[in-house]
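User: For my dataset I need records formatted as: sequence, then structure tokens, nothing else. Please produce one.
Assistant:
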Amino acid sequence: MALANYSSLNRAQLTFEYLHTNSTTHEFLFGALAELVDNARDADATRIDIYPEQRRDLRGGFMLCFLDDGTGMDSNEAASVIQFGKSAKRSPESTQIGQYGNGLKSGSMRIGKDFILFTKKDNTMTCLLLSRTFHEEEGIDEVIVPLPTWNAQSREPVTDNMEKFAIETELIYKYSPFKSEQEVMEQFNKICGEKGTLVIIFNLKLMDNGEPELDVTSDPRDIQMAETSPEGTKPERRSFRAYAAVLYIDPRMRIFINGHKVQTKRLSCCLYKPRMYKYTSNRFKTRAEQEVKKAEHMVRIAEEKAREAESKARALELRLGGDLTRESRMMLRQVQNSAITMRREADVKKRIKDAKQRALKEPKELNFVFGVNIEQRELDGMFIYNCSRLIKMYEKVGPQLEGGMACGGVVGVVDVPYLVLEPTHNKQDFADAKEYRHLLKAMGEHLAQYWKDVAIAQRGIIKFWDEFGYLSANWNQPPSSELRYKRRRAMEIPTTIQCDVCLKWRTLPFQLSSVEKNYPDSWVCSMNPDPEQDRCEAAEQKQKVPLGTLKKDLKSQEEKQKQLAEKIRQQQEKPETLQKTTPVRSQADLKKLPLEVTTQPTGENTQSLTRPQRPRSPPLPDVIKNAPSRPPSSPLAKSTMQLKKRSSASPNISTPKLASMLSREEASTSRTHQTAGKSNSNLKTHAKPGTTTKPLSAALQNAKSSHETPSPKAARVPAAKKSASVKCPQASTTQKRILNTSEDESEEEEEHKKEKTKRGKFVAVKEEKDSSEVVVELTDSAGEEELAELKRSQKDKGLHVEVRVNKEWFTGRVTAVEMGKHAVRWKVKFDYVPTDTTPRDRWVEKGSEDVRLMKPPSPEYQAPDTQQEEEVIVAEPSTSDCVRIEPDTTGPSSNHETVDLLVQILRNCLRYFLPPNFPISKKELSSMSSEGLLAFPLKEYFRQYEVGLQNLCNSYQTRADARAKACEETLRNSERKLKETEEKLQKLRTNIVALLQKVQEDIDINTDDELDAYIEDLITKGD
């Protein structure tokens, strides 16, 4: 249908506001500057100069200029610049960076509001102005771009419409920084030679404080990001010179900033012990599938055109019939030639489509290069390039994600082709996030292999870094600037420099005099001390990088069974360890005791039943933090303490808060506080008149038989009235544990309360079943030496150590310390282990051959538990055998408040785990009195709770079984379809062989491979 028929239809329009919208894709400002550098590289430029020009009359105070010596543009090519999304660089095989036809517009508009372009090519000079200021002041909605052209020799206008040329130049003089033709020509004169391009960006964008985003004054050799602190910021995020140095994987273009050359880098040449790994995968198909679909579409169009031309030729031949005049023959020949040309084009596009389809099935191969950055070890991670252009930098993968010293300082480099992964428009990420994550995962696996191959961990990580001058435990500290360390680093990484004339890279031999040498910007091959590489005609030497191989751990069936059996054994040992009762001989043994809190209602006499406590519980009320506490009771000499339960309706309830605090106090290294004058900060058990209060250490064991509110996994334990006695030897020193519960107390107050002492040694903790007495014996024995040694060893927490496991050394930190039978034992958590067979942590004996100490951690990296001192309290020594504590009746209201708090905690527990169909609602439970809670049907409560859990588990199991059955059915259908397809394929091959034998009787084909080769050869010859 003719285009004129569409003239009345609506058209999409591009408003000037899109210029700003389009620029917002560049979140990283240096990425916008890099877009203009990319355009120069794609134009085959050998040099680009980036520099500011001071202009106080413009916003920002300066203009930013990009001058290159590339191929330039004529007027037609410059006109294509203002077409959004159109690019002549776009092709699957292209190695150019630009693909979207958007970089110049989006990048320049991110830096400033306006830009003007000057370009030379083929004896023409063209100027282009794209200005948001012009559109705003003129009130124009459409994007209008003045584009005048002059003759390079005569400086005369090149145009057929002088009126249009006059309007364009008038707009340039009005809205650009250049107000006359002479000033415009001066800009063209900056382009040396007959070709090149100059882009000037002005009216720069400002920050909230009114200053420009780019800082061009702090460092005259650099362009920096304004108000960006160097601490904690990667150099490439703050300095455009540093970013431009690594912008391309194989730099061939010289970049000058403010007239000073950027020392570009080939990253693989700047690393210690580089190693390459070839990675092959069929995973990356998204981009290739898009190219195949595009090729299929082009084939369909070309095929239709070819058929139409052939049909037209046949129709003309029939119409002419026997007409043999010259004009008729010429007309017929033209139509037939056109049809032949169309058919050839269709065949070519079909072959291209077939090639792309074959390429789609072929695996994609990538080269991973890893090495250690011994110059700046804190700058590590993966640098990922696309078509030689940097897309992502400092990406942490594999062991680096765990934050340990394993793989620290290692840099990886990979160049991903356009057909494997497609970058986003701003060239700061990849379009297919799923395939990009797959790439990072593969790099992580190869990184772990590289770390194993270079064997740094086996020799000792700290020792390795010490060798290159990293003497501080702080990872981010730079290496030592001593000359011997500088020489050591220079010996391992030879200097690689680019010739300013031939642009070839040369590797200089190591010389002591060149350790701190600064090479000139105009370095040339003749300055090379190597006689074989001291001229530009010499071929560029390729870097020799050793090839590594990824070795996957393939476990045999026997190893898998052994590992599974070991896991089962460890799981079976856990409940046995919990149930076992062992004598307490040291502080470490005390930590292993499970602290169980059970209940004992009044008037019932049944055997005690214990269940492990549920690890999660309802939150405690806020008022518990401010619960009133009683002052310590006065001791009486030479009497045996007996605690009798009240026979009244109100039971003796041991506080869960007390139990949990006791557990924490004993699990830590005996940190307690004693406050003699401030009794309101100490927590103790209290009794009403007629009862006797226990010492706190005895209350620990009596908590197993005293009455308390149950949790869903702790059964009610009815028992008869029991009395508990605390037997103390005559030579013993009475000790009290006073628990400080004041959470709001400041650290300065706590420092005044800390006082260290030696603790008595627990000889045994046992429960006498026959007499129903809980006996705790305390004594001061020779164990004080072991406890003192344990306290000294607690300071080892947080130390960096290396542990030998299966003949390999692994780094880690000491996380726990305990007294063993013969020596102090450390629990070491490893920074990184490569396989599942190596445990994540391990107990080792201090001072053994399998453990060696690394450097002590710096204070900022020291573990929190190593920065706190162990605190214990001293009770007043008594000459009596034991202590009798009389009840304190001075504050009876305190006891009621404690009971009310515990009742509230019980309500919270019951509400938190209330079964859905329980006859008592949450509202009724909230208003229930303490007497009602005593009669609460706990047995039915737990039964319904367990039934609900069982139903939930059964529903999960039923769902899993149904899903497994569906998967099995799908698998069977897939196998059946595969078998049918294979049978059809075989039948088709048989028919093809039969057909070929009919056409050519002497043909001899015996295998499928011979048949495929014969058909491919036949098609190739036919083409």
